[in-house]
Give the backbone structure.
Amino acid sequence: MDLVGFKLDEKTYQIESSKIKEFADALGFENSIYQDIHFAKEKGYRNIVAPPTFPMAITLWGGYGFDYICEKLRLNPKRVLHAKQSFDYYGHFVAGDVVTLSGEVKNVVKKEKIDFLDVEIKFFNEKKEHVVTSNITIAQLKKGGS
Amino acid sequence: MGQKENIWFVEEIPPVDIIQIVKYAGAAGGFNPIHFDEKVAKDAGFPSVIAQGMLIMGMVSKIIVQYIPELSLQHFDSKFVHPVLAGEKLTVESFIVEEDSMRRTCRFVVENENGERKLEGSFIYKLE
């Protein structure tokens, strides 16, 4: 099956402030606009702000979980690795935002021991503004590869 | 590789332990067993469970935002070159690649104590 052009179903996800805080805590952020509503409001933000790599949490909790991706893209979940990641930012998300995300397979490169899949995910806010694009390169290790 | 004259900052990344790996898995919602199941990790050819590339990239982001104006990041990418194991001491080095009046482009590398390359990537941010 040629996966290039394959689209993942559109999903929506509401960002809870406790999820942002938990994510920021796990990365070692402290006393920041990513955790503390007082800091965030002092700086003029409506709520605590999503850190730069938070779109990955939106992706995984927002409907494109690991099992879902493996099933849709026919990957062996025991031999999958994240090879590359990029984000392009056109705005930012804060807690309370409702995000719409849509994904598409952009490229597939097949090699002897490993296949690479590029998946592009676009994130929009309630106003349909494009806030972030995430590009995920997934590596599928083949049998016998190391 | 690195043009030392353009070096901007060097920072240590605190070593991750299995608790932090699991905490990040829960926070991010990523449950690839290679990050917490020893057998799965060994079957895939690793000595032990490995940290999520995104955990280390996220820790790099925490350092970057300390150096740049708030919410000025326009682009951030990383290649996960070699997996990071629990307990490894890592350093991130950043280099300025180019800048104009609007934005600055930087490169970064993450290496362990033996100079093994773990992550490499770039970021672009808007100048104030």
